[in-house]
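To the wet lab folks,

You asked to see what we're planning to order before we commit. Fair enough. Below is the target structure as tokens, and below that is the sequence we designed to fit it. If anything looks off to you, flag it before the synthesis order goes out.
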């Protein structure tokens, strides 16, 4: 007996998700499979992907454009949270998963499916992100993961597909496992699994090497309104265009490469290569603007919130009460995070060289050491005495 009658499958057009279609039908007895390909700015030919799904046996092959939604509803909140998993990875892939899950659930309800499926394996993070997001949005839906259970090697998977008319890949164009959307690109597997080897230049696609980057720096001014990037160099831009332009600018200057060994949720360490030119620059610029507009106590308290936020996203808990609660705090902090940040992009580095805001808390008359200094230096002695009183009492007691 089949596990489900009608299934909506998250479909990328790759070997695993293509083989999922006949596998669900012939091995698990599913009556019909509806595939959903989501355009997240990965540059894939979705018409060809749509046709491939029908060839593989899908009853329907659907495509959804969700680029803008990925940026406005997922990336922008993460930028406001300065979300960097393990203080390095800006969650470019992780942020897309709850959106895909949301669309899967919506399509399942539209077509009357009783289950959804994905092509994730049993050792990655994405299986957790999909399963938990789907469960949070509709706990009545069954979640199927054929690739997690079929136990086939890649060669066996390809051979299985050939039995049902799926063409074998003529060649493996890349030895790496690649994931791409408008927020960034990730690469793993192949020789990258040796954490001691320098990644070859062929791994990268969105960023130039430091050697090939221009000799002269590029300057870009990023405008924010309440923590949301809204323009570049004085021009208001649609979110998609802003990301596209900044990806090109930063990538051309070699900015946005990350080579890290990260801690996966399932308990293993994984060597990952990321390219996130725009997203990294935006988080850095946003943090610089916050340094100008947030009070010290809010800034310091927000550091812990940001760490928790990034862990929630990475660990598949986008749709959770805690993230909703953290969003409430973060949104309150963003009311004054409005202004312009000037960044210098040069030879793999993005450096803030200027920041301004109508809500700036920076007071030059208090900060200056030159003429016009308005700080009351005499008040410092009494402040230090009171501030250090617990230390003084403790020290006296310890010394008898």
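Sequence we intend to order:
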């Amino acid at each position: 007996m089949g596990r489900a009658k009608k299934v909506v499958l998250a479909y990328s057009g790759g070997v695993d998700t293509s083989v999922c279609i006949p596998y669900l039908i012939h091995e698990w007895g599913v009556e019909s499979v509806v595939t959903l390909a989501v355009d997240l700015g990965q540059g894939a030919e979705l018409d060809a992907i749509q046709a491939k799904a029908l060839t593989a046996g899908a009853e329907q092959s659907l495509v959804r454009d969700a680029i803008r939604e990925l940026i406005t509803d997922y990336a922008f909140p993460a930028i406001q949270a300065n979300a960097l998993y393990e203080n390095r990875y800006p969650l470019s892939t992780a942020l897309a998963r709850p959106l895909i899950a949301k669309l899967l659930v919506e399509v399942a309800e539209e077509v009357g499916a009783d289950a959804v499926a994905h092509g994730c394996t049993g050792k990655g993070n994405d299986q957790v992100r999909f399963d938990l997001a789907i469960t949070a949005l509709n706990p009545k839906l069954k979640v199927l993961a054929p690739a997690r259970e079929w136990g086939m090697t890649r060669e066996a998977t390809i051979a299985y597909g050939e039995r049902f008319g799926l063409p074998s890949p003529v060649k493996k164009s890349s030895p790496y496992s690649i994931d791409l959307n408008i927020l960034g690109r990730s690469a793993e597997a192949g020789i990258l699994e040796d954490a001691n080897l320098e990644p070859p230049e062929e791994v990268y696609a969105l960023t130039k090497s430091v050697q090939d980057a221009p000799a002269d720096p590029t300057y870009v001014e990023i405008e924010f309104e309440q923590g949301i990037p809204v323009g570049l160099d004085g021009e208001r831009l649609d979110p998609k265009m802003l990301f596209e332009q900044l990806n090109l600018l930063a990538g051309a200057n070699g900015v946005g490469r990350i080579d890290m060994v990260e801690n996966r949720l399932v308990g293993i360490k994984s060597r990952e290569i990321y390219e996130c030119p725009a997203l990294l620059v935006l988080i850095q610029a946003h943090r610089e603007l916050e340094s100008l507009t947030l009070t010290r106590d809010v800034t310091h308290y927000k550091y812990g919130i940001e760490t928790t936020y990034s862990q929630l996203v990475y660990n598949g808990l986008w749709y959770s009460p805690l993230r909703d609660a953290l969003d409430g705090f973060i949104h309150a902090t963003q009311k004054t995070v409005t202004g312009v940040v000037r960044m210098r992009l040069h030879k793999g580095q993005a450096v803030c060289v200027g920041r301004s805001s109508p809500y700036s808390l920076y007071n030059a008359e208090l900060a200056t050491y030159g003429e016009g200094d308005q700080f009351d230096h005499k008040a410092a002695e009494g402040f230090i005495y009171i501030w250090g009183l617990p230390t003084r009492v403790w020290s006296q007691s310890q010394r008898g």
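Structural context that might help your review: Residues 41 and 182 are 5 Å apart (CA to CA). The radius of gyration is 25 Å.

Thanks,
Computational group
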